[in-house]
Write a structure and sequence with these properties.
Chains A, B: One of its GO terms (molecular function) is acetate-CoA ligase (ADP-forming) activity. Chains A, B: Keywords: ATP-binding, Ligase, Nucleotide-binding. The structure is a homodimer. The two termini of chain A are 40 Å apart. Chain A has three domains: 65 residues, 3-Layer(aba) Sandwich (Rossmann fold); 161 residues, Rossmann fold; 148 residues, Rossmann fold (3-Layer(aba) Sandwich). Chain A contains 14 helices and 16 strands. By secondary structure, chain A is of the alpha/beta class. In chain A, strand 14, helix 12 and strand 15 form a beta-alpha-beta unit. The interface between A and B is large, with 78 and 78 residues.
Chain lengths: 382, 382
């Protein structure tokens, strides 16, 4: 039996093709074709015909009016995008094909991997609840990201989300927070969006984390694909610059995180290593003249300290700092410590090489340390 | 007479050198040397000696413990940073040397220009109030950005800010919002930070715009250096993708902006140009199959429309979109319309060339359309 049919024929022909698939015992189908409910009454009629055909058997259908789906672990690219994403552990489900193509292109540059990418389209059959349940049980998937414009069948979405969020983070961005945006969304998909406050409250009860900006959604894809989740909210910040350390602390606390209190052992080791006027606390300010050697030794102490649930290393380019070399010294700590390691190499030209080294090592390198601190909060607070 | 002395000698020698400068009639000095109040009592004594020497004449002094300052319009680089920034219209004043080196490095990559860069250091003499008044009258400066850890002389800061903010945007990020961060800041500079709520209220009364993240501060440097300020809050969004348009709208409204209502003339011209199922409203969704020609023609209509105070062009890479070519068609609109033009080319590899074209043309190119919409809000709402 055929596992999957990909249907890319004119809308009027789709009900017939779906019917043939049902008759042939095809198990599932993706309808990429557009021209359904987003085109008005005629399209709605076509959808009804498709539903009737589906009702005759057990075939499930993704779409119509979607970009398709990818499963990079088995090399499946059933979309009309030319490149396939890298394999990873994040499932990304999106009601916007354009957002998917953008994140796909971005992920190739940032080396972010996915367990699956699904463009949901009109959700004539397979909907949020189905997808969340499916990826909740998928062993390759460790977290699920959603871009949503319309909720669809709310009850099935919420009950699936509640169950899956117990074991895997679900992170969502929902367009149409404001009335104006909601109107724009409705003209775009033909779907109505509900009250945003009600939705927000429902998500909180389910344990789903909602983010408000595209950058946060992309960053979550990056950190969850590259680093383990922290066991608690305590972050250790290591920096060669006081100001950026303070701004990272502001963001950390505002997002619900905590500064790890250095263990006395770690503090003693840092005292032995660092000039006397280091900060003597977290953020560990190893001072503006820190060279790669000082960074490397402080790094080892900071990551070893069991008082911290995660480590953020900040570097601002200064006279002695050598951003590329510090990145090489940080790279080996990317894995094996069972706590996330994040980095913020600040600047432009001088830090580009170091940034590339971090990215290749699987350490998310943020342009701004406060953004990194917020990402840590999201990781621990979902 | 000597205009400026740059003092980079050990801290104990600084009072003597300052005294010699005063005697020689030097008009101003920058003390880059560290080792003053941030080192405790001994440093405080040295500061008192410097003050006493300054009291004998009229020389003004920036620092100590600072990176120095730059004025790229006259080619002055009185810092220990190796590269000088590009000339522009933004004055950037920072109490963190590391943040300055980071923004400097970043600005060279992003082609952001400055009228001046000043590292304030300990503010033994020249303080926030002096600097704001000075750059408020500087004809090269059209906006002032501040990174602040401690307010110093609050009265002089607030009265200078109130006066200057009437004619030039002042945008500030203040570290130490939270208690934990405030403690970190105090261990870093030796300065105490005050109540954040009081400070916030004072800023609002002065018309100073406060941002909460480093990224927003850098983005403001970029948009203010490259584009004119909008005359009002009405943004026109042109996009080839519905979802990103909706998310940009959410951010716009949440930040206090408004969607421009298209003029009937613009709508008629768009009706003649676009496929019948375009959005028929702002955001102007020119649809996923938009090619460069359709983009170019819609652009001209959108920018001509007097109903909008600014334009945001969004592109998500799709089959027909050709991000590089659309960027070339957008570039000529960077100047001459007396309204800001912002862009968001979403993605990674496929949009890199277009991003570079936009940047070279002076159009800020954001990775995320909602970030761009927020920057527009900041520009109009300062």
């Amino acid at each position: 039996p055929v596992d999957l049919a990909v249907i890319v024929t004119p809308a009027q022909t789709v009900p017939g093709v779906v019917g043939q698939c049902v008759d042939a015992g095809v198990r599932s189908a993706i309808v990429i074709s557009a021209g359904f409910k987003e085109r008005g009454q005629e399209g709605l009629d076509l959808e009804r015909q498709v539903k009737a055909e589906l009702g005759r058997g057990s075939m499930r259908l993704v779409g119509p009016n979607c970009l398709g789906m990818m499963n990079p672990w088995i090399g499946l690219n059933a979309t009309f995008a030319k490149n396939i994403v890298q394999p990873g552990n994040v499932a990304f489900l999106s009601q916007s094909g354009a957002l998917l193509t953008a994140i796909l292109d971005w992920s190739l540059r940032e080396r972010v991997g996915f367990s699956a990418i699904v463009s949901t389209g009109s959700m004539l059959d397979v909907d949020w609840g189905d997808l969340i349940s499916f990826y909740g049980e998928d062993p390759k998937t460790q977290s699920i990201l959603l871009y949503m414009e319309s909720v669809g069948a709310a009850r099935s979405f919420l009950s699936a989300a509640r169950e899956v969020a117990l074991s895997k983070p679900i992170i969502i961005i929902k367009a149409g927070r404001t009335e104006a945006a909601s109107k724009a969304a409705s003209s775009h998909t033909g779907a109505m969006t509900g009250s945003d406050e009600v939705f927000d409250a429902a998500l909180r009860r389910c344990g789903v984390l909602r983010v408000q900006s595209i950058s946060d959604l992309f960053y979550m894809a990056e950190v969850l694909s590259k680093q383990p989740r922290p066991r608690g909210p305590r972050l250790t910040i290591l920096t060669n610059a006081g100001g950026p350390g303070v701004l990272a602390t502001d963001a950390l606390i505002a997002g619900g995180g905590k500064l790890a209190a250095l263990s006395s052992d770690a503090e003693a080791r840092l005292n032995a290593l660092l000039p006397p006027h280091w900060s003597h606390a977290n953020p560990i300010d190893i001072l503006g003249d820190a060279d790669p050697e000082r960074y490397a030794k402080a790094l080892e102490i900071a990551i070893d300290d069991p008082a911290g649930d995660g480590l953020l290393v900040v570097l601002a380019p200064q006279g002695m700092s050598n951003p590329a070399e510090v990145a090489r010294r940080l790279a080996p700590y990317a894995k094996g410590y069972n706590k996330p390691v994040l980095a913020s190499w600040m600047g432009g030209r001088d830090i580009a090489e170091g940034e590339a080294t971090l990215s290749a090592a699987g350490i998310p390198a943020f342009s701004y340390p406060d953004t990194a601190a917020r990402a840590f909060d999201y990781m621990s607070a979902y």
